[in-house]
Write a structure and sequence with these properties.
single chain; 420 residues; alpha/beta; Rossmann fold; 2 domains; three-stranded antiparallel sheet; 36% helix
């Protein structure tokens, strides 16, 4: 593996799981950057290649923007900041012959290349996987597109929102059609992008293990639509077992009852009863221990079949006491339950704080940068937060020098506007 001098470990610091792995990141927006940020958090040296002048599209996806010391907006959108820490940025005009030569030079010195160009676009520049792997046989190339490298839709652009619809997620998300507010509903965050980024991370790690054993790189073909279909999980299995497409069911669960939102006397709570023993405890707490002996409700299968009878009984019982009263009683009995928090509540939650799910980082434009932390907790090789999300082209000179260019060559490329 190639090791960057900028990513060597400080003596005495914890080991980095992916120390020595170098990644050339030609991706933008979310799925690819989410993948490469995960690799970077684990210790990989990620080189983010951006378009001169504008950079990653998400740099402009605001407001909100990062605030400077005076409270004014900087040029860095929160969206971009959330997916690009621990990377170094180089701005290269990939449409130019000189820019393409630089990409080939960089690709010959890394372990992994991640890209999300449309199918065939990189081949037009002589930067397709086959060409790059001829110079670097151990290179792992991960392509992320909406629909993959094959199939009738391969040339279409793919966006998370459309993929949530096409992949079936919006048909099972939202309130039932016959109720107020019913109809198709997307998930509040770009889950197809995020899941694809995580699947891509897993695939890259598997390919690196194979490369380390054989010396042979490979290509990875990741598609948002494939991922969206895969993440249907139990609902996809339900359909394949029955041939019947599940519909929207609001805040309830297709396969478990009671497992949904209920209204207390002063707000809402989630009840998530996962087995018959928990249901018996739940029934006692709400003052209806007889429910657990009722043939209609004794087993989860029966509760699912008699959902329409049981849920109104539970709803009526839970409306009689305040939310926190119910939560305290249910938690004491170890019946799964929870509050419904907004993000202010979430980040103030003592468990979230105890798990250190935010991280403060120094940034060239602000001393107030906070980011959502990586959830991976490794005992021997913990994630690290080494670099804030880079400014556009912040590391261009540094990276070109590492690639072997002289200072004169770098300055000429800057004058020619090949790099910035």
């Amino acid at each position: 593996m190639q090791t960057s001098s900028n990513e060597t470990q400080t003596p005495g610091s914890p080991a980095l799981a992916l120390a020595g792995v170098r990644v050339l990141d030609l991706s933008r927006v979310l799925a690819g950057p989410w993948c490469t940020q995960t690799l970077a958090d684990l210790g990989a040296d990620v080189i983010k290649v951006e378009r001169p002048g504008s950079g990653d599209d998400t740099r402009a996806w605001g407001p909100p923007y990062l605030k400077d010391a005076d409270g004014a907006d900087t040029s860095e959108a929160a969206y971009y900041l959330g997916a690009n820490r621990n990377k170094r940025s180089i701005a290269i005009d990939i449409a130019s012959a000189q820019g393409q030569a630089l990409i080939r030079k960089l690709a010959a010195q890394v372990d992994v290349l991640v890209e999300n160009f449309k199918v065939g676009d990189l081949a037009r520049y002589g930067l397709d996987a086959q060409t790059l792997q001829a110079d670097n046989p151990g290179l792992v190339v991960c392509s992320i597109t909406g629909f993959g490298q094959t199939g009738p839709y391969k040339d279409r652009a793919g966006y998370d929102y459309a993929i949530q619809g096409m992949g079936g997620l919006m048909s099972v998300t939202g309130e039932r059609d016959e109720l107020p507010g019913g109809g198709p509903q997307k998930v509040g965050v770009a889950v197809a992008d995020l899941f694809t980024g995580l699947y891509a991370t897993v695939a890259i790690l598997a390919a690196l293990r194979h490369r380390d054993a054989t010396g042979q790189g490979q290509t990875i073909d990741m598609a948002l639509l494939d991922t969206q279909v895969a993440m249907l999980a139990n609902l996809g299995a339900n359909y394949l077992c029955t041939g019947k497409a599940p519909g929207r069911i609001g805040n309830a669960h297709q396969n478990i009852v009671p497992y949904q939102v209920f209204e207390a006397s002063d707000g809402h709570l989630i009840v998530a009863v996962g087995n018959d023993g928990q249901f018996a405890k739940f029934s006692e707490i709400v003052g209806h221990g007889d429910w657990a002996a009722d043939p209609r409700f004794q087993s989860n299968a029966q509760r699912v079949r008699h959902r329409a009878e049981l849920v109104p009984l539970i709803a009526a019982a839970l409306k009689t006491r305040p939310r926190n009263n119910w939560l305290a009683a249910l938690e004491k009995a170890k019946v799964p339950c929870g509050a419904i928090n907004n993000l202010t509540d979430t980040f103030a939650d003592p468990q979230v704080q105890a798990r250190k799910m935010t991280v403060a980082m120094e940034h060239p434009l602000s001393d107030g940068l906070k980011l959502v932390a990586n959830p991976i907790k490794l005992s021997a090789t913990p994630v690290s937060y080494r670099h804030p999300p880079p400014l556009l082209g912040q590391h261009t000179r540094e990276l070109l020098a590492e690639a072997g260019l002289t200072q004169a060559e770098v300055e000429q490329l800057i004058r020619d506007q090949i790099v910035t």
